């Protein structure tokens, strides 16, 4: 499907949509917690604090047509697709995972924890779903079985999770990081403390499986490698900051073709980066509310991002009246934004 920057935008321009991106009609009614794309077509799924899981069909002209939705009993926090695009997994504060068969529009509970499920990932190489929970466990599920095939105790609550088989990285509370080699999923390959000084917000495994990125609430990203032999390539850099104001890095996503990545932040900005040349490729215009999540589609031609409250200021949000609701935008990526560049000396405010 061709998707270029020439389509019309259906919403008024301004602070709500400063990057002139396509605005998805009929967005969720509360804070948006995750976005995930089908690996086989341009179908986009979102989860929300309104307990709903929504599926949109993104068409060639940029129109995003709502297709269907299912409901959890409590806020939905995470989503992932099966490798063949036939089903969506979603989890959340009702402590369960639902498998949504799109052909029959039927959701079925297939997994459960004792506390909310914060993250999950489908691992096609082994045909299992992995779920991370605030109950301090990591569980692996065969969707055809009612009990987990494996349960691993975590040192703390799961706050972040990313997998590129066989590398699985779990970010936990108190800055714990658990690095797994899925050839031996019962035992962490490494258990370390985050190199960042504050709470882990997100992680993203490298496409080449040699390392991972960590984002924290202090507006900083760490580039870390699994093996000590590559430790000289590790570094951290500052981002999502405005003078004295520091914002959380809410999500990190790698481009599927170029290996560059994008960060989204509580400052309402998303930035494109190249870790290998150590530089920012482009900083986009600031939205009027935080960007809690974002994701590239299967070929990297579209970056979807949500603009909604992310709870970074707690239950009382002083900007709530100015946010303009909850929105999803579709950004048609340009080569200059996502294609690697020759090395430079700095990336962001490198430490």
TrEMBL record:
InterPro entries: WD40/YVTN_repeat-like_dom_sf, WD40_PAC1, WD40_repeat_dom_sf, WD40_rpt. WD repeats lie at residues 69-110, 110-151, 242-283. Signal peptide: none annotated. Transmembrane segments: none annotated. It comes from the Eukaryota. The keyword NADP does not apply. Keywords: Repeat, WD repeat. It holds the Pfam family WD40. This is Rae1-like protein. It comes from Micromonas pusilla.
């Amino acid at each position: 499907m061709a998707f270029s920057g020439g389509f019309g935008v259906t919403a008024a321009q301004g602070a709500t949509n400063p990057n002139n991106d396509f605005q998805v009609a009929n967005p969720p009614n509360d804070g948006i917690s995750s976005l995930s794309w089908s690996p086989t077509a341009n179908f986009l799924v979102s989860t929300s604090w309104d307990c709903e899981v929504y599926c949109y069909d993104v068409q060639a002209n940029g129109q995003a047509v709502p297709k269907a939705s299912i409901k959890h009993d409590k806020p939905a926090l995470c989503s992932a697709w099966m490798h063949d695009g036939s089903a969506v997994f979603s989890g959340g504060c009702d402590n369960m995972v639902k498998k949504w068969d799109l052909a029959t529009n039927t959701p079925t509970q297939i997994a459960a924890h004792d506390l909310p499920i914060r993250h999950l990932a489908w691992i096609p190489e082994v045909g299992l779903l992995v779920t991370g929970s605030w109950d301090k466990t990591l569980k692996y599920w065969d969707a055809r079985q009612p009990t987990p095939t494996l349960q691993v105790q975590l040192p703390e609550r799961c706050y972040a999770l990313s997998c590129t088989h066989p590398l699985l990285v779990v970010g936990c509370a108190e800055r714990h990081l658990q690095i797994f080699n899925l050839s031996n999923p019962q035992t962490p390959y490494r258990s370390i403390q985050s190199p960042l000084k504050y709470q882990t917000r997100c992680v993203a495994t490298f496409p080449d499986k040699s390392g991972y990125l960590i984002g924290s609430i202090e507006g900083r990203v760490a580039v870390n490698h699994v093996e000590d032999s590559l430790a000289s390539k590790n570094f951290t850099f500052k981002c999502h900051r405005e003078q004295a104001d520091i914002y959380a890095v809410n999500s990190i996503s790698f481009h599927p073709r170029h290996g560059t990545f994008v960060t989204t932040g509580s400052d309402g900005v998303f930035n494109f980066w190249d870790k290998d040349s150590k530089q920012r490729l482009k900083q986009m215009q600031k939205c009027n509310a935080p960007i809690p999540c974002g994701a590239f589609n299967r070929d990297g031609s579209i970056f979807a991002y949500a603009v909604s409250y992310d709870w970074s200021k707690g239950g009382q949000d002083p900007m709530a009246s100015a946010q303009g609701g909850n929105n999803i935008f579709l950004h048609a990526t340009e080569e200059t934004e996502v294609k690697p560049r020759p090395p430079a000396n700095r990336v962001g405010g490198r430490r």
